[in-house]
Amino acid sequence: MAKRELNWEKLTNRCDADCLTYKSTQDVKMLKGAFGHERAIRAVNFGLSNKMKGFNIYLLGDSGSGKTSILKNLLKKRARNEPTAPDWVYVYNFDDSNRPQAFQMSPGMGVQFQKDMSAFVNELKRLIPRVQEGDKYLQLGQKIEETSRKKEQRVFNRLKRLGRKNDLHIEQVSGELLIQVIRDGRPLDHEEFEQLTMVERKYYEDKVRDIQDEISDFLRNQRKLDRVKQSQIRKLEHDQILKNTEDLVEDLKRKYGMVQDLNKWFDTMRLQIPDAFRDFQRSQEDVEGLGEGMPAPPQPDFHEFRVNVLVKNKNGTGAPVVFENTPTLHNLLGCVEYQEHFGILFTDYTLIRAGSLHRANGGYLVIQANDLMKSMYAWDALKKALRNKEVTIEELDIEQRTRSTVSPKPMPIPLQTKVILIGNFDFYYYMLHYDEDFSRLFKVKAEFDEYLPRNLTNMKKYAGFIRRLVEEDGLLHFDASAMARIIEYGSRLAEHQRRLSARFINLINIVSEANFWAYESGAKIVSEKHVLRAMRERSYRTGKLEYEMYEQIREGHVLIDVKGEVVGQINGIAVYDIGDHAFGIPSRITAKTYVGQSGILNIDREAKMSGQIHSKASLILVGIIGGLYAQEKPLALSASLCFEQMYGTIEGDSASCAELYALISSLAQVPIRQGVCITGSMNQRGEVQPIGGANEKIEGVFRICKAKGLTGRQGVVIPHQNEVNLVLDDEVVSAVKAGKFHIWTIRSIDDGVEILMNRPAKEVHKLARKRLSELYKAMEAT
Q1: Is the pTM of the predicted complex or chain greater than 0.85?
Q2: Which range is least confidently modeled, 28-37, 111-120, 505-514?
Q3: Which terminus of the chain has fewer CB atoms gathered within 10 Å of its CB, N or C?
C-alpha cells in the first residue's frame, strides 16, 4: 500500500553543528553584498544597463526578502562608476518674468555660478556709486545741467520781456512764476496792489490774461526741457554704468561661455543693470523714509540677477541615487514655495524647489509602490514625466485658487533617470492588467526568490550574513550550535527540508533576540539555548490567540474528540495566520447521509460562509463519490456536510480529504478514529494533493492531544508530497520517536480509509455500496 508511517528522522532536517566548518561566526568571512536571488539581480542589472525608454524596473517579492538593501548595494556599486549628474539652475527670464529659464551646468558649476553672481551684485553696489561720483561723470552731468539751464533762461527771458511790455514783472521763485504789477517803474507788492482802484486792478488782470497763452507755453517748454535734461542724465548714467560694468559681464561670459545659451542671457542681463541699480537706490531711499519701528518691505536688491541652484552635485561622486520615502506630487516634481509678508503671499523663481525626479536626474530614483499609490496625482505625474522625458513643476488648480499671487511656470527640465518601483505581487499584476502605461514604462520585472537551496554554500553564506549583522550592530558572535539552529529555522521558514528562507528580516529578528537573551544571561557568545529561547519567547509573545483557542478546546467550549471512534465525524485541521504568528487548530467535520436525490449539500456553502476555493472543493466531492459508487446505477443520495462550530468564512481546499472520509464513513456506517486528524485536498481521480501549513497543522493537533492526554494511537495524516515540507519542533519529533504520536502520508483515497477506519478499503467501499443500494430501494419504494 502507498500509505506509510513516517520515521521520526523524516520529520525534520537536522543541521549537525559538528559538520560545520567553523566554531563560531568569528571564524567566518563577513558576507558583503547579496547572496541568492540570482534571477532578480540579473534582471536588475539588465534594467539598469538598458538606457532605452521604458526600461524602468519593478522589483517585486515578499516583505523582508532584502529587496531594498540588495538594491541599495547594486545601485551604490554602479552609480559610483558612472558620470556625475549635471547641476541645474533657474535664472530670471527678462523676456517673460513668469517663465524662469533653466540652464544645465557641469557638476559643481551651479553653486559656483550662484556665488559668482552674488559677488557680481556686490561689485555692482560698490562700483556704480563710484562711477556716479567720478570726475568725468560729474563733468558730463554739469554740462547737461548747464546746457539745460541756458535754454530755460532764454525761454524765460522772452517771457520776461513780454511781461514788461504789458507792465508786468515776472520772476521765478522756488520753481514757480511770480507776476507783479509795474507802476512808476517799480513792481507793486500785494498790499499795494490791493490799494488800487477796481478799474486799475481790472486793467492789470486783463494784461495777465492777454499773456496767459505765452505763460502756458513757457511752462510747457520748461517741463519739456526738464524731461530732456532728465533723459540726458539717465542716458549718461545708463551709458556710464554699461561702460564701466562691461568688463564684469565679460569676465562672467568667459568663465561660463561653454554653457549653452547663457551668453545670450548675460547680454540681456547687462542691459538691465542701470534700471536694476535705480530700483535698488529707490528701495534704499524708501527704507530710510520709513518711520521708526515700521517693518521694511522686501527689497529688490538686484533680485533678477540672483541664481536659484535647483540641483547641485559634487564632481566625482558618481550618478545620484535617490530613495523617495514620501512620493507625493510635489516631492516628485518639485514645487514653488510661498513666503508671507504681513498677510500677503508672494513668490518668485528663487523659491522654486527641486523634486526627487530633479535630484535623481542622470541617476536612479527608488520608490515604494504602495507609498506612491497613496498620494493623489503622484502616479499620473510620474507617468507623464517618464513618457515625456522631462520634469515640469505643476501647481494644482485647487492650490492656485488659494494664492494671492501668480505662480511662476518654470521651464521643463529634460529627464534621464531610471526609476525602480519596489512592491508586492498583487500591485504588479493589478497594474499590469488595468493600466496600459505600466507595461510600457516598467518593462523589466525583477522577481526575488522566496527560498534558497539548502546547500553547504548557502549555509556558510547564512553564517557570513550573521557575521555582518554582528559587526554592524555590535552583537555577540554565534557559535556553531547556534548557527545550526538558525539554519534549521531558515528551513522552517521556507517550509522545506532542502531549502532556506530568503526572507532575511526573520533571520535578523531571531538573531537580535537570541543576542539579547545571551547578553541577559551574561554569556560571551550566543549558543543553541539562546536561539531556542528566542524562538519560544517570540512564540509566546505573539501566541495569545492560539492560547485562547486551545483553552476553548481544553475546556470543552469547542467540541473536539481525540479519543474513540465516531461514524461520519472527522477532525480536519485549519491554519490561522494572523501576520506575525501562524498555528493549526483541529476542526470537527460531520456528515449525514439519508434517502433522497438532492445530492451532497454543503451547509457552509449554502449559508454563504464558504469561499470560492472551498466551494469548488465541495463540488469535486460529488465527482469523486459518483466515480466510486455510481458506475452501475444512479447516485440516489442525500447528504449534508458541515464544519461544526465554525462561524467565520471557510476557505481553502485542504479539508476536502476530511470531508470525503466523513461521507464515506456515514455511507458505510464505519466509525473514524477521532485521535487521527487529516489534512489534504483531493482531485476527481481520487489522488491526494499537497497543502500548505503542514508543520503548524501537525503541531496544533499534537498540542491538543497532549493537553487531552496522549494515548499512543493519535496522529496526523498528510499528503505524501508534504513529507519534504516537514520541519517540526523538537517536542513533536521526540513524541513520534517515543511512539506517543504518529504521522502518516497517503497518496490515494484507499490509503486514508485504512488509516482512519482501521479496515481494508475494499471492505469499507463494499459496505458503502450496500448502503447506497438500500437508499436507492427505499427511494423507489416511496
Answers
A1: no
A2: 28-37
A3: C
